[in-house]
## 1
Amino acid sequence: MILRCFVFLVFVLASFSNLAAASNCFKCHHKKEIFKGKVHEPVASGKCYRCHLPHVSRYKGLLKERADRLCFECHVRFGKELKKAAFVHTPVEKKACLRCHLPHSSTHKALLVKDEKELCLSCHGELKKKMVFVHKPFRDGKCTVCHDPHFSRNMVFVKNMDRICFKCHGNRVKLKASHRYGDLKRMNCVGCHNPHGSGKRFLIKDFSHKPFAEKKCNLCHKKGGVSSSVCVSCHKGVEKSFNHLHNHQLGRVRGNSCLACHNPHVGADKNLLADIPMRMCQSCHPETYKQKRESLYVHPEWSNCINCHAGHGSDHPAMLKGDGNAVCVRCHKTQGKFTHPVGKEVLDPRNGQPITCVTCHDTMGTNFKYNLRLSGEAALCIECHKNY
Amino acid sequence: MYRVPQKLLAFVVLGFVFNTLCFAASWRLEKSITRGADGISMHYPLGMLYDSGRNKLYVVDSGNDRLLSFSDKWEPVKVFNAGGKLKLPIYMERDPEGNLLVVERSDNVIKKIELKTRRITAFPLFRKGRPVLIDRIAKYSKGYLVLDRISGNVLVYDFKFNYVRDIYPNARNFKGFFDIKVKGNTLWGMEVVSGRIFAIPLGGGSQKVIVPQKTFVEPVSFEVDSSGNIYVLDRYLKKVLVFSPTGAFKYSFCREGFREGELYYPWLLLFVKDKLLVLDEGNGRVDVWSK
């Protein structure tokens, strides 16, 4: 009984001390300005000290710690799950919680800084384009109906990729009627439909394979077989584009190796690529994402793989569109004229190979400024200039 | 209370590290072959062949459109470019008469080069009416085994390049071979991406599958030593990973870099007697490792 009374007393005193401390804070920091809409739990319960110091701090806003560390002090489970996640949304990866959330209160759900759609589109500006037919959740600005904004098992941060569409489009009879030849269980909805919007009805992707558009299904399907020979029987010139030292003819990958990258019916671009290059390439090259995630510096065009890499074949390692110089100077024009000596006449003393841009730079991601392979202060230079 | 488990853990970890280092350290770099007899460095080499009859190593110097030969002491012997008629050679073999068979990627043909008569004949290959994307060629007792990059199958041709049949393992979800070796009367093949190793007897009999107990990123080549250990070369990891005959991971060696013994864009493994040759396209050389 005495113990119970003691515990009760401690709780009462603690609550009073919180409120007393908070009431001190709110003498200057007016509640009206801080309490807007939904209030963050520590703020509501007057635990200002959970995040702030009252007198001095080395962090802005008199924070006790760096903002990102503070959040994870309470959101421990979230932090643990984040560590296990295969794909992490960039702001979360950078622990920039305040990029999307307000720390005290917000009139938007989940303490968001803005309306959900407005917030997402502030980075994903490519989705702002006008579309004739728009998917309802996207139109309504409910991005999180389909996406998990923090982390996911897939690179598009879709919740439960295999079933998400069927949550709303669950009428199997209706689906079967419009997909007569497909197996609903194995169907990849976003292969043909754009989940945000499209210029075509039923959100079918904008560009169609000619035989599909003309409903000449038998042109391909009657030929049977699973190899790429079905494709090259029409796309004759394409065969030679693989006649390079390295190419993307990879045996029976997905039966017909063309279908590893191309959609035979519809696509988001005229090449009928199955997805945007970054996601499509990563489905086979996930290590590139890992490298990016572990790097401080990556090339700004990192996500547009086919800017630098050839899709079919190349005579250069990593299937670059040219040698380590040619591919870079297409954009870095001044570097082509004025730089560290490069080219066939300038040989790397370590291996006798011509020095190129990629001798010193790794555009896929490094921890050194300018995507250098080692620190530009000295470590990189003394690799070759021993007596420097 | 926690001392014993900690000691045990430390013992296990140290034992593992020691074991790994001992195994890895047992391979030492004997030599780096970097240039041909003319003193010109290799550029993007992609093929190797050891002719045990002549005791010569041949390297296909793809970037320079030429073939290089080396003695069994790894000294450069000759440089050969067929009078400038080689374009993007990627692999080579010798026919029973000793003529050179060079896989040329630019025209997708096998070029037979008769050294005595200086005659060159090109053979495009077909399989069931469709062209074959020729990648590797290996001679065996009844003809040639050709790796077709399109189907991922090994195709059997007779010595006159008439198509005979396909060879592929009886395995679920087989995605095609990426590298092949012929050892005696057995075809060894490594599956693309997964790195599964298949041993298929050419004279008939049951196939063997070895699943290496490690996830690869970009396995591009493999070798099998006399004890049946499997060596897999991962182009992305820049490592040679060694597995027991059952597929259990033993150790790995090599690392990324530009110096001798380091790998940049490695491409091919080849055992010559008890030495392991690692062909590195990016560094333009062949590293010879011995125990």
## 2
Amino acid sequence: MTLPLRRRRRPRARVLAGLVAAAAVVGSCGDGSGGTGGDGGTSEAQEQAEGVYEEFASMSGTEREQALYEGALDAGGRITVYTSNSAIDSIIEGFEETYEDLEVNTYRATPQAFIQRFFQEQEAGYHGVDVVEDADVTLVTERGLAGEYVHPDLTDQIRGLDDVQGQFIPTRMGAFVVSWNTDAVDESEIPDTIEGFTDPKWEGRLSIADADWPWYMALHEQMEAAGKSHEQIVEIFQTLASYSTIVPSHTLQAELLAAGEYDVALTTFNHAVNLLQADGAAVTWKRADGSAVEPIVFHQEGAVPVVNAPNPWGALLFIDYLLTGGQDIMAGLYRPTSIPQGQDDLFAGLDQVFVPIDEYFNSRDEWEPEWLGFLDEGTQHQE
Amino acid sequence: MSEAGPTTATLPPAPKRGEPGSGGVSGNGRWLRLARTGFQTRNLIVLAVVIVIAYLAAVPLFYLIHGTFVENGSVTLDAFGRAYSAVGLGEMVWNSFLFAGGSALLAMVIGTFLAYVTIRTDAPFPTLVFAASMVPLIIPGVLYTIAWILLSSENIGVLNQVSSAILGRPVFDAFSMPGMIWVEGTHNAPLVYLFMVAAFRSMDPAMEESALLSGANRLTMIRRIALPLVRPALAAATLIMVVRGLEGFEVPALLGVPGGIFVFTSRIFYELQNFPIDTAAAGSLSLSLLAFAAVGVFLTNRFGSGRDGQFSTITGKGFRPHPIELRRAKPVVGTLVLLYFLVTAALPVGVLLYTSMLPFAQQFSLDVFSSMTFDNYAELFDDRAFPRATMNSLLLGAGAATAVVVLAAIAAWLIARTKVPGRQIVDQLAFLPLVVPGIVLGLAVSFVYLRNPLPFQVYGTMLILLIAYVTRFLPYGMRYAVSAIQQISGELEESAYVSGASWWKTFRRVLVPLIVPGLLAGWLYTFIISVRELSSSIVLYTPGNEVLSILTWNYYEDGQLTTVAALGVVMIGGLTVLVTLVYAIGTRFGLRDR
């Protein structure tokens, strides 16, 4: 695990260089992200970053950590992360406590929003991002914008690293669970499987989030394996969508469930429900006997260092932290982690399926439109 | 705005070399002398300001047009084809106009009614109406919209819980076209009120009194005399409201999109959120919206208030308005005024305050009060983004206001005090951003600085937000500065020149002190609207440069309803203090009451 570090005294020349760089930043109105603009900086930034990624691929232990920390400081001390991770603030707090004088700035938005912005900036030659973190980082990798990440100590411990075929470094998992408002629904009413919610009595009482095509894909595969035809499966999800309020994010979905806007949320992440439950909200995804609507659907998410990161040392150090101290923090927030932690007991004894990663990579253009088609067919859109 | 009146047409004489006012230069070098003359100083300063204004106003539009029409090095209309072949385009255009027209109509009816009853009648509670008229300044659009979601969401909205208890079903639906019109219209109504108050104040009541004496009843008098007299103001206010409706972002994004109702601004925003990105298609939608907004503003100028004084009803004859007695209608009008205050001020603020003290969003019940907590405030103050965003907002607000006032004061001098050929172009350039919707401006500015033409970095810094704010709010600063200068006779400056003062000294020591109240009002107004700005900021901010409106948006998108309510209460408290300060300072410096 990572050790708290203190800053070493740096050579005077570097301090001077730092002062010059600081003056340049102040000259450009103070709050620059350290990004580079224009084609002139492209190859230089990329060469530097790729060199750093290669250099550290064989380095581990405190030597790696100390060298990355020093390098990150010398590169300006600022690390920029684009992510959809709602736990990112807690992780950054832990990171900045561990690594004094490093500062992490985040652009947190829906995956579509931040990936799109990232590409727009890259196309314009603006290179201001060090790490991108989400399941959709596969798009970043496909465009050749992901740098190489190897950590000799951690690689073997990462659950599902082989499954993601080098597209990203799995750092966390999303666990889709069916949750309900305990004031509105008695647990005895809750069916054992998702199909049970096609009963007309659930009409207008359900909710799904609009970007949940991976969830549909995983359940489609599971149902197909159980002998259902594609048409039967499509009918099930069309019905579920038509009974549901559509919400734009999972956190909001859980909040509105707790508030009583609907009775059941089909696609909440477990951690959002567990956190609300801890605050005293009348929500749960498990019955009193520990059973739940099955299967639980897991979706791997992860990070990549950006190929032209302005602070490649910081990029590697931040991903290292996501896989070490960050795992503890996520576990404390009820999140399934990539390197197993104690909180996995939350799912003990429950059927689990995983979003098929190869399909996720290769067949998005088939699954996503089909899912969006369900949503467009006469559902109640709601906030 | 650009027309100089008879007293403002004087070109201040540029002091000649060796004359008093030239700075008393006696050196031998020709260039040195020239550089030191007031003439050069004046011209250099004015030229610099003109270049900055032209750059701010024209460059983003150029990039936007270029980015829309030029793809892979050749001119094409493909982007329009892609944007306009999208499913539901016709519906989106219809929605845009329905929303803009509906909200304008609602705002006009409410605002005009309130202005009339408070200025021309003995209606009760005028103070409440005045307090509510400050609402658009104090409650940013994004917070007002969120407050209405908390009030009228289908199952958890407080109003719907009341209606469900009484009628057995929820009645209100914020996520609908009527809901959108309601929220936008009621938020804009105070602006109409302020607009119409000025018109009714300057209208000689003798005409209404004559109508009443001639046997007309009150309604006939209002319909046949009062309203026709303020028709120019009505027309101008209507068109401004329609343009505001077309440009509005918060309501369409937060209420329209979840209900599947898209208008131009929300479609542009979501076009920018989709993958793969098609900035040219977003640009083509932006240019269409820009065209509609420009037509609206053109119509405003053509049929609305037009030149200063064109439709003025102020005459040399003094009059003292005598309030019309409402008599039996007084309780009805009083109730409506109370209702208005309740709807636009008390309910939105109340629901934010209530929600900010809940441990999590939940339905209203008496039990809730026992679990109320200040945890959300603690969470807000613990969030490291909050102090950063607050500081960013204050810095940007102060920076934008200062830049706008300086640019506007010098440009206004050029327009109002000189006959320099082409000065109207400066006026029009400074006015141009008014027709550019915030989100379009944001997109255009991002087009510019992602392909940075300047030698220093702009994208990724706060400077890009500052540039956007200064561009966006320059027209407002101009309005304040031009009207302030036009109120000051040119004779005072001429006296200074005659006494030997240079242009710069005259400008600094004579003109600026005289127009300080106007400039101060412009500064404070620009500061406040900068602090609330969302639609440009949301396209332009980068990590570390968040402002308060972005924080509000992010909290809401993230489902942190109770935290966003706490932030709302803090922001409203802060803005109330600011607006009170504006009022107090303004009054002290001679700004007109109300």
